[in-house]
Amino acid sequence: MVSSLEVAGPESKPLEQKFESNIVIDGEQSEEENDSPIEEVRLTVPITDDPSQPVLTFRTWFLGIISCMVLAFVNQFFGYRSNQLMVSSVVAQIVTLPVGKLMATTLPTRKFRLPGTNWSGSLNPGPFNMKEHVLITIFASTGAGGAYATSIITIVKAFYHRNLNPTAAMLLLQTTQLLGYGWAGMFRKFLVDSPYMWWPSNLVQVSLFRFVFSTSHNTIFVLVIYNLCFVYLFRALHEKEEKCEGKQTRLRFFLIVFFVSFAYYIVPGYMFPSISSLSFVCWIWTRSVTAQQIGSGLHGLGIGSFGLDWSTVAGFLGSPLAVPFFAIANFFGGFIVYFYIILPIFYWTNAYEAKKFPFYTSQTFDHTGQQFNTTRILNQKTFDINLPAYESYSKLYLSVMFALIYGLSFGTLTATISHVALFDGKFIWGMWKKATLTTKDKFGDVHTRLMKKNYKEVPQWWFVSVLIVSFALAIYACEGFGKQLQLPWWGLLLACAIAFTFTLPIGVILATTNQQMGLNVITELIIGYLYPGKPLANVAFKTYGYMSMSQALYFVGDFKLGHYMKIPPRSMFLVQLVATLVSSTVCFGTTWWLLSSIENICNKDKLPISSPWTCPGDEVFYNASIIWGIIGPGRMFTSKGVYPGMNWFFLIGLLAPVPVWFFARKFPEKKWIKKIHIPLIFSATTAMPVAKAVHYWSWGFVGVVFNYYIFRRYKAWWARHNYILSAALDAGTAIMGVLIYFALQNNHINFPDWWGSENTDHCPLAACPTEKGIVIKGCPVF
């Protein structure tokens, strides 16, 4: 699936303008062309197939499962650290190709028979082929995606300090990941078989694999999203290349950067953690709260702050080297407008009593400026809200930064709907009509005909069986085990109904425009009104409603990739199913192990100041469970609460794309207008408050340098090395980070304490309130 930075292509011009000349309006194609009606697909996807190629080989299972397990573990492991790092499936793609080819040359070719069966096979059925590599990549990307429900386990054990049955937790993870198979099976006829549901993001992967296994040097000219970078990456690693005088080969460049990144990360990861966020303003004005609020990269505006750590650059926002300047400009522009115009105005005018609370935090507070004491309003036996205690205590307050982020999330939802309707509505409607017509034809385009001719379809009962079993286990997880998850059976049914309702329309948008709307805000809002006071019911409902839809589209997208690459559908189904089970199991094991073995994990007040185990993402998830679950939107965003004004963002988001659309139509020659992408601008805050100012500045600076300055001035170098650099930095940093923990920190071998060993930016006053009379430990009283 696409990330928050992948919601648009290189330009936000209406898709019907971009492609109307490429589509056969009457749905017919000549016998001579015998290809897809979408020009991008015709340019990218071959219309040939070799059904004799082995697919589910020993190499596929071995390398696929190992890749899935390693990426699931590494990403889950880093998710608990102050500077997260997301290792993508590209690293596994890089490693598995030469390993696969090595296995093809070394493993024995002798066939053997499984005792007691008629099944026979070989560890080495022939040359390592493209279809094997595609399935290994599916394994790896599933592992890299992680499991959203691990955050529920974390907040229960580390924040609420309650017991959770491990079987219930395991079932929660598995069922939230697997329910989407049911919707995928129901809608694959529309979203996979139809040639008009073309899934732009998959064309990049198709190009990539063709480049990997091709000796030709043809170039695909028309691609609509920035992932084109990976084409260069795989060409660099796998095409034969002569070393030019004075130039490194790209493979050697990758290895050099990998080892430098690997060696360097011991500095920010072990010896000098403070180098991850350097805030010079705080060092100059050591006694000024305002100066530290302005200068702190972790708790303030971050003016002048930066980090010398790749995980600071890429840990929260992804690698900036893989993002085009168009997306960087929109995303970083949204950050600038929010963070340096809107937020300071709200804070320094004391809107919503902002000065009572820290400038940059996701924590919750009471009316006195102290951290909100949830134990005072929770019935510990039933684990729900005690209304008389709440009414006698305090309304829930947020930092104005956090409140505005929720407002902007409302605006992002409606801005996406409005933007898609205005810019892409006509195109999507046309594609939908064509899809419903072509599905009546059992052949569809040439790719569908090849798949139907050469391979057996996945029986519908396979999908239905997974859905029934997953739903039954989900009911058991929610209603059994003393109802620890709090979600009643009707809540699970409603969550599934929401996911089912939205899967097809959002799938059509994603399959034609590469834009996806999330359901997390909608689901939190719905269950927050229907079932307030239940924190775990809220997050469980959100996870079932949001993730089953998201997983369904992930599965369908992979099926479309297999459709283009001519992977047998049954093989694709088995790989997806096994990869999902393996990934969620590894994520569960890693989560349970870390929560059980690291003392005071996620508890900043009790952790050593140098500890990286601060769980920034899960802290936000925990506070969301308080806001939407315990208190509920009815007591937060209506007249009963403090923040009813945030509801205006629904209207603001809905109207914001209109001027851009109007001026783009009125002045078509002004191409820069078409590049203003309102949903992307609104979504700039989605990484907050987990990501801080130093992360945005470091990410933006590196992105502009490489994808604007170097791209324009040194385009040959950029094309040759840019994406190799990104993958090598990711891999080296991740491997050293894991090695440091297991070899040193896990054995209590700590670096000597000194000023730089503190996992902070040395701006302690930045987290202080500035309202008169508010008393906070360690802060001056104004």
TrEMBL record:
<feature type="transmembrane region" description="Helical">
    <location>
        <begin position="85"/>
        <end position="104"/>
    </location>
</feature>
<dbReference type="Pfam" id="PF03169">
    <property type="entry name" value="OPT"/>
</dbReference>
<feature type="transmembrane region" description="Helical">
    <location>
        <begin position="573"/>
        <end position="595"/>
    </location>
</feature>
<keyword id="KW-0472">Membrane</keyword>
<feature type="transmembrane region" description="Helical">
    <location>
        <begin position="645"/>
        <end position="664"/>
    </location>
</feature>
<feature type="transmembrane region" description="Helical">
    <location>
        <begin position="134"/>
        <end position="156"/>
    </location>
</feature>
<dbReference type="GO" id="GO:0016020">
    <property type="term" value="C:membrane"/>
</dbReference>
<keyword id="KW-1133">Transmembrane helix</keyword>
<dbReference type="InterPro" id="IPR004648">
    <property type="entry name" value="Oligpept_transpt"/>
</dbReference>
<feature type="transmembrane region" description="Helical">
    <location>
        <begin position="694"/>
        <end position="711"/>
    </location>
</feature>
<dbReference type="GO" id="GO:0015031">
    <property type="term" value="P:protein transport"/>
</dbReference>
<protein>
    <recommendedName>
        <fullName>Oligopeptide transporter 5</fullName>
    </recommendedName>
</protein>
<keyword id="KW-0812">Transmembrane</keyword>
<keyword id="KW-0813">Transport</keyword>
<feature type="region of interest" description="Disordered">
    <location>
        <begin position="1"/>
        <end position="21"/>
    </location>
</feature>
<feature type="transmembrane region" description="Helical">
    <location>
        <begin position="396"/>
        <end position="423"/>
    </location>
</feature>
<feature type="transmembrane region" description="Helical">
    <location>
        <begin position="58"/>
        <end position="78"/>
    </location>
</feature>
<dbReference type="InterPro" id="IPR004813">
    <property type="entry name" value="OPT"/>
</dbReference>
<feature type="transmembrane region" description="Helical">
    <location>
        <begin position="325"/>
        <end position="348"/>
    </location>
</feature>
<comment type="similarity">
    <text>Belongs to the oligopeptide OPT transporter (TC 2.A.67.1) family.</text>
</comment>
<feature type="transmembrane region" description="Helical">
    <location>
        <begin position="253"/>
        <end position="286"/>
    </location>
</feature>
<feature type="transmembrane region" description="Helical">
    <location>
        <begin position="458"/>
        <end position="477"/>
    </location>
</feature>
<feature type="transmembrane region" description="Helical">
    <location>
        <begin position="168"/>
        <end position="187"/>
    </location>
</feature>
<keyword id="KW-0653">Protein transport</keyword>
<feature type="transmembrane region" description="Helical">
    <location>
        <begin position="489"/>
        <end position="511"/>
    </location>
</feature>
<feature type="transmembrane region" description="Helical">
    <location>
        <begin position="207"/>
        <end position="233"/>
    </location>
</feature>
<dbReference type="GO" id="GO:0015833">
    <property type="term" value="P:peptide transport"/>
</dbReference>
<feature type="transmembrane region" description="Helical">
    <location>
        <begin position="723"/>
        <end position="744"/>
    </location>
</feature>
<keyword id="KW-0571">Peptide transport</keyword>
